[in-house]
Recover the amino acids of this structure.
């Protein structure tokens, strides 16, 4: 793969990584070119580019995965190089070859290296030959269910079914007993087929208390390959990373050296060039095993940048232009500790269901020291067509404890209001004993989720939200009263959707007494600018960030919780869900329909499966009955609330 200088870069991606690469390109005085779908026309990464081209409608298959449209945009804009970011086509060998065949510089590894590591079965064979430790398992061409089941029984349980194509935790299922193998295989294959177009799987022994530790590698075109230390990504849910840090609290200098040497050997085995990550599973004994290699820049690369003092995007530019690595292995030093949290538009209280809508407040570039890489800001709209990650919060400290505390503070001062996110969940996770002590393992979050414990335990919203909301509503246009009059009135409020009636005595336009049950508060409005509300609660002055909803309610960031408070609908709460109608819980794709009209079903049967933003949701019957209508089909799109299946419920005698 020939490297050469260039002066313009097209970024074949979207969101925060596209914005990051575009800004780095402009720092070099390169012409920065964005491509975007029609849904992203007004997003920050497009606004930041020198040139931009719409390459198709919202669905990724018609835009960000459309190789010909991207290459056409490169030709039309005079782009000399293409940076793929991560996700989408970043690990697509055919795309890399097409870029090179078009005479452009590919800011990534050779297509052959992508191909070698993209097939997990072949990659594992290569690693065994290169002397890199691997997990016991099986990978083979015979993909019949009987063969896979027989091999699984030989390996023993628990084991992991893993798609050989792609990555990011998709197409993976943990099987804990022989009885669960068939269902897990069907589910893993379906997800792998949907995500990667390939349902081939391999089997591996599953390590119960394993940690995910990955090593950043970098190679140039002059035969030099180095590693930049490890990152710990053990805080995961459903095989998706949530928090990452460098260095790992479980790795000492001797282990770091062994893992680094293994990662370099893995990269050299495929003739690697550029930035890549070799992922390992670390068990409690200190043994580590190759998982996969991500042949691209990782989402969590900023924590490595923070501890080694290198800009990895700029280093990618240099290597792609033919420059040698600026440091040798012995020159790499690690300073302090860095930690990153991923902010997702999702509802942790509802199975992390993806969320969408307009952002009423999010100012990631506020003047604080800590870094935030964000793809959205106030006024932007979060849709359902792409991954729900909207920002990365990165903090550095001299110690791990300092880095965690700084990250916590950064999340607190930059709330995203208007769309539900996982911010409050992240704060609880950072405060958990398992994370604070550095003992969290890959399986912990999923186990806590099942038990409703740890950061998944329901948190009671702060009562002060009722006092502040009542104060703000009393001051709303048309509601304020004369300074010397007094009135008492009731408000039927909903705090995070739960009814909370209050009694309000308003002694002036800026002062109220609020009573809820046996509690009461004195609240006084002191002023405010923009989203900042200055107020006094029972004599204590404080500031809160908040935005008003279209219906007159409020989104409020109160301490470590973001809450919504609104007046209850005069028609009362929504009626309970109709069990005779199976509806789409979010907007997304119907990936499976398991029933036909006339078919009898039992409560708990999985009637359909939906996918939205990398999450698979099973839609089950809540009562016995017979299918009367099926309105959905496999691969069809469905908006949130759409009726997919109707049942004639079985009456009880």
């Amino acid at each position: 793969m020939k490297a050469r200088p260039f002066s313009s870069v097209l970024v074949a991606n979207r969101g925060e990584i596209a914005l990051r690469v575009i800004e780095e390109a402009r720092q070099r005085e390169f012409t920065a070119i964005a491509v975007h779908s029609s849904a992203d026309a007004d997003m920050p990464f497009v606004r930041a580019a020198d040139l931009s081209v719409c390459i198709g409608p919202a669905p990724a298959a018609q835009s960000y995965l459309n190789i010909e449209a991207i290459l056409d945009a490169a030709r039309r804009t005079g782009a000399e190089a293409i940076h793929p970011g991560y996700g989408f086509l970043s690990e697509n060998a055919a795309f890399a070859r097409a870029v090179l065949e078009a005479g452009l510089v590919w800011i990534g590894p050779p297509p052959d290296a992508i191909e070698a590591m993209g097939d997990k079965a072949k990659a594992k064979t290569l690693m065994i030959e290169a002397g890199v430790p691997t997990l016991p398992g099986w990978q083979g061409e015979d993909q019949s269910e009987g063969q896979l089941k027989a091999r699984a029984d030989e390996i023993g349980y628990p084991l992991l079914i893993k798609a050989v194509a792609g990555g990011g935790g998709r197409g993976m299922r943990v099987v804990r007993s022989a009885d669960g193998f068939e269902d897990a295989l069907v589910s893993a294959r379906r997800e792998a087929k949907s995500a990667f177009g390939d349902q081939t799987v391999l089997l591996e022994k599953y390590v119960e208390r394993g940690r995910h530790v990955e090593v950043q590698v970098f190679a140039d075109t002059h035969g030099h390959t180095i590693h930049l230390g490890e990152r710990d990504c053990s805080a995961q849910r459903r095989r998706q990373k949530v928090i990452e840090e460098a260095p790992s609290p479980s790795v000492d200098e001797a282990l770091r050296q062994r893992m680094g040497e293994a990662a370099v050997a893995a990269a050299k085995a495929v003739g690697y060039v550029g930035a890549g990550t070799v992922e390992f599973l670390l068990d409690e004994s200190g043994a580590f095993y190759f998982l996969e290699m991500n042949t691209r820049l990782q989402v969590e690369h900023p924590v490595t940048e923070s501890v080694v003092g290198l800009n990895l995007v700029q280093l990618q530019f240099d290597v792609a232009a033919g420059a040698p690595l600026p440091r040798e292995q012995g020159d790499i030093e690690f300073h302090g500790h860095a930690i990153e949290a991923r902010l997702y538009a999702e509802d942790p209280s509802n199975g992390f269901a993806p969320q969408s809508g307009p952002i009423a407040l999010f100012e990631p570039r506020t003047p604080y020291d800590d870094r935030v890489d964000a793809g959205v800001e106030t006024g932007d709209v979060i849709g359902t067509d792409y991954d729900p990650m909207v920002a990365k919060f990165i903090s550095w400290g001299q110690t791990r404890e300092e880095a965690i505390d700084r990250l916590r503070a950064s999340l607190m001062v930059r709330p995203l209001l208007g769309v539900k996110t996982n911010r409050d969940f992240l704060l609880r996770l950072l405060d958990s004993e398992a994370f604070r002590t550095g003992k969290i393992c890959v399986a912990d979050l999923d186990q806590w989720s099942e038990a409703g414990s740890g950061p998944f335990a329901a948190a009671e919203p702060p009562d002060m939200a009722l006092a502040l909301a009542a104060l703000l509503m009393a001051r709303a246009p048309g509601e304020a009263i004369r300074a010397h009059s007094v009135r008492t009135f009731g408000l039927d409020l909903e705090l995070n959707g739960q009814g909370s009636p209050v009694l309000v005595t308003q002694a002036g336009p800026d002062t109220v007494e609020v009573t809820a049950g046996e509690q009461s508060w004195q609240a006084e409005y002191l002023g405010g600018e923009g989203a900042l509300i200055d107020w006094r609660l029972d004599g204590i002055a404080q500031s809160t960030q908040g935005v008003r909803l279209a219906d007159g309610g409020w989104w409020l960031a109160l301490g470590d919780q973001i809450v919504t408070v609104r007046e209850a609908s005069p028609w009362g709460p929504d009626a309970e869900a109709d069990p005779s109608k199976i509806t789409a819980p979010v907007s997304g794709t119907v990936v499976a329909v398991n029933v036909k009209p006339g078919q009898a079903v039992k409560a708990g049967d999985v009637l359909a499966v939906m996918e939205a933003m990398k999450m698979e949701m099973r839609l089950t019957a809540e009562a016995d009955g017979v299918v009367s209508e099926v309105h959905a089909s496999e691969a069809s799109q469905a908006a949130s609330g759409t009726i997919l299946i109707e049942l004639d419920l079985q009456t009880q005698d």
About this structure: The mean pLDDT is 92. The radius of gyration is 27 Å. Residues 114 and 198 are 16 Å apart (CA to CA).
